[in-house]
Amino acid sequence: xxxxxxxxxxxxxxFLLTKNNQEVRxxxxxxxxxxxxxxxxxxxxxxxxxxxxxxxxxGHLKLTVEGEKKGREVYEKHIYFKEMLVGAGVDxxxxxxxxxxxxxxxxxxxxxxxxxxLD
Length: 119
Hints:
CATH topology of the largest domain: Arc Repressor Mutant, subunit A
Largest sheet: 3 strands, antiparallel
CATH superfamily of the largest domain: Winged helix-like DNA-binding domain superfamily/Winged helix DNA-binding domain
Strand order of the largest sheet: 1-3-2
Strand content: 5-15%
Distance between the termini: 29 Å
Mean pLDDT: 93
CATH architecture of the largest domain: Orthogonal Bundle
Oligomer: single chain
Number of strands: 3
Number of helices: 6
Structural class: mainly alpha
């Protein structure tokens, strides 16, 4: 299933928050992403429907195996392209923004091939 950019961003954010905290709530995601609670609620509902996320009785978000895989892949691409751009002399703030765009355009398979070729 091809994910939309916004869903990939949510999965990446939840993946990051989960790495830093054991339990992530919708409010944590809203603060991290700078979005409203209703926007987060809609996104969480969509991710649950797609099988990428579960929410327990206390409201803690938990990525499914597939959700964690997708979140990790997006994050890995983001970090790699950001570091590559900064290494090429791009301003770190611009590199952050552009890496966020690249991570959504390049498939994980293509990313692996680029990484293998360049590393």
